[in-house]
Amino acid sequence: MPKTIVKESVGAPATARLSEEHKLILKVIAALRAECGRVEKGTPLDQAFFQKAVAFIKGYADRFHHAKEEDLLFPELSAPGVEMHCDPRQQMLHEHDLGRGFVRGMEAALREGNPAALTENARGYCGLLEEHIYKEDNILYPMAEDALGPERSAALSERFAAVDREFADIVKEHLTFAAAASGR
Ligand SMILES: [Fe+2]
Ligand SMILES: [Fe+2]
């Protein structure tokens, strides 16, 4: 009779939650790109869509998702006993800042009613974040999980869950926007 190995469950890896959030951010990026294409072909600027997209980027991608990385995941990777063979955190932080710069550019373009500047900054943000997300999903997160180990990762996942509960109402609003945006 084959021996059954029962693994002790210590919860889901922390970064799995972050990768799920990436999927939603990528949906909004795809919608933003499509809308940029329409504007570039001469369709009048849909101010409301771009304002909501900016609100999503600031509220969900930055204050909710990037804050989990910057305030919880990254510091945990400096905890005693956690070692990574290389450290991409500074580059990731730099990219978060570059993203904020594109968002400021989008906000300025919306205020000025400048479609060319708006699509340039929006496309800059989209390209940056797609590459950023690819690097996190394929390099940083697997490296972080290796360094953390399952128990520390599960404990971090619990802390992420607490943030999810705290932001539940805001997140719900952004989920509604992301679903509507991806159906455009
Ligand atoms: Fe990030
Ligand atoms: Fe991320």
Instruction: For the record, give the distance between the C-alpha atoms at the N and C termini, rounded to a whole number.
Output: 55 Å
CATH homologous group name: nmb1532 protein domain like
CATH architecture: Up-down Bundle
In angstroms, what is the radius of gyration? 19 Å
* CATH T-level topology: Four Helix Bundle (Hemerythrin (Met), subunit A)
Helix content: over 70%
Ligands, deduplicated: fe (ii) ion
The number of domains: 1
Structural class: mainly alpha
Order of helical and strand elements: HHHHH
- Kindly state the number of beta strands: 0
The gross shape turns out to be elongated
Subunit arrangement of the protein: single chain
Major β-sheet profile: none
Q: Look at the structure and give the CATH class.
A: Mainly Alpha
Uncertain stretches: 1-9
Strand content: under 5%
Average pLDDT for all residues: 92
Topology:
Elements: H1 14-40, H2 47-76, H3 89-112, H4 115-166, H5 168-182
Helix pairs in contact: 1-2, 1-4, 1-5, 2-3, 2-4, 2-5, 3-4
Bound molecules: fe (ii) ion (2 copies).
